[in-house]
Amino acid sequence: MLDLLYHRRSTRKFLDKPVEVEKVKQLITAGLLAPSSKNNRPWEFLLVDDADQLKAMAYTKPHGSSFLANAPLAIIILGAPGKSDVWVEDCSIASTLIQVEAESLGLGSCWVQVRNRSHDEEISAAQYLRRHFDIPADMEVLSIIGIGYKGQERTPLDDEDLIWSKVRKNSYDSKMKF
Question: What's the rounded Cα separation, in Å, for the pair 14 and 37?
């Protein structure tokens, strides 16, 4: 697991190669296996692999979503606030597991934050997606995960990249030493 985490880096450049159906199923399986508060499972996943829809999705926000135009797959992570008051946390866990599974399958991924982001001065990024993808009113959009075969390799993180000063023990005033 740590090896996957060291190697998983945000990927915004993808090869022009579709993600196989079996791998898509594995990605979704990872999301569906995510733990959730009281086992409410407030998440739902909207898969997008249509080139025109991906191009439209690239305009979700002014910054940070344009790479989706060239992604072979995107997963819109939806949450049901009516099912859980911690849907954001539950959907975030599912999103992360999908990204780790992508790395384990030799795929790259990148999270696009949608919740609390603007599309333009008039509508939110979530409203923009709601209009384009017929998302029902009782569902909220947390994020989009762009996924595909890596168009570039990034250097994995190593131990020197870890910020151990962020670790405390028993009291905030006591730093943990390993």
Answer: 34
Cβ neighbours, 10 Å, residue 107: 23
When the pLDDT of each residue in the chain is averaged and rounded to a whole number, the result is 96
Give the closest residue to 108 by CA, choosing from 37, 7, 26, 36: 7
pLDDT in tens, 119-169: 999 999 999 999 999 999 999 999 999 999 999 999 999 999 999 999 999
Pairing of β 140-149 and β 43-48 = unpaired
Q: Whole-angstrom Cα distance, residue 118 to residue 99? A: 24
Whether residue 73 contacts residue 144, with contact meaning beta carbons closer than 8 Å, is answered with: no
Per-residue HEC secondary structure of 80-111 comes to CCCCCCCHHHHHHHHHHHHHHHHHHCCEEEEE
> In sequence order, what DSSP letters do the residues of 108-146 get, joined into one string?
EEEEEE-TT-BSSSSSBHHHHHHHHHT--TT-EEEEEEE
Burial of 48 (0-12, 13-18, 19+ CB in 10 A): buried
**Per-residue pLDDT band at 73 (split at 50, 70, 90):** very high
> Which residues lie closer than 8 Å to 26 by C-beta, 6 or more apart?
101, 105
Lowest mean pLDDT among 45-54, 64-73, 168-177: 168-177
